[in-house]
Design brief:
With about 350 residues, the protein is α/β, with parallel strands linked by helices. Helix content is about 30%, strand content about 20%. Strands 6-7-8-3-9-10 form a six-stranded mixed beta sheet, with helices on both faces. A four-stranded antiparallel beta sheet has the order 2-1-4-5. Helix 5 packs across helix 6 and helix 5 runs parallel beside helix 7. The protein is globular.
Length: about 350
Amino acid sequence: MTVPAQPPAAVVDTPAEALDPPIAEDPVVEALVIEDAVVDDLVVEAPLVAPAPATRTVTRKPATPAKAPTQAPTKATITTAARTPAPESADADVVLELHDLVKRFGDTVAVDHVSLSIPTGSIFGIVGPNGAGKTTTLSMVTGLLRPDGGTIAVHGADVWSDPIVAKRNMGVLPDRLRLFDRLTGGQLLYYAGILRGLDPQTVKKRSADLASAFGLEDALDRLVADYSAGMTKKVALASAMIHSPRLLILDEPFESVDPVSAANVTEILQNYAAAGGTVVLSSHSMDLVQRICDYVAIVVSGSVLASGTMDEVRGIGSLEERFVELAGGRKTAEGMEWLHSFSD
């Protein structure tokens, strides 16, 4: 019996556009010209409150009855001694690790083998006299200044060998503000959010939240160049927080800020830390640091002379008394009797 031949299958020409539709382009994002390649790939989509650190499952072997139980691991220890940094997965409670950090300017050693471990969810204060190396240390942490030695890791990512990942997790308020002051406050916040990869709707919502929190609602339509020093500091801090980073690096965040605004900023930072974010700040205000910080390090002449919890560092006195003691004590003014004879 002859089986009839099957008709050939129909061939359909599918246009290439149907198989690979073009990607919609965002004219707002296209208009931004970003010269710094470090931030090209920063795509952060997270709520304003910093997310809690990632958890991991550890399988433990059953304890052997013949052996004495070991001591439970304690929280991250803050130490000034040089040590080998732990692997990324060894301690999930450490968000920022500085190991044996060194920076020289000619014959001057600005940072002298500094090692610190910053626990997640804490507010960590760095205090010291002028020229002690605080700003130099924070500039190296944020990638603005290359160290001569040592390593810096943010959530296990090295700031210099893996800068995109490390900087994605940071919000920075530098000591010397360099803002686009010919933008309005609203435009500056919008630019900061878009630069970090947020969509326009999210940026507008978060800008409104931050403006309300910092008392800048009536100033968003004004040029930043017309802001007071305190308002400039607040809009810069808002720009550092808009992408909800895991780590905030703040150099003198309360300088030139009035007491009411300082109280609002303090509450914002405390709520941020309670939600799992981490704050590292430098300040000359001993009372403020003692009041809001969980941990503190006293830096003198580029070296960490004391570090740990606030109670460990200040001892039975105040932080200011401990700071003055380590910084060399109070200086007695002599030979200035002429100052007591007033001129007419």
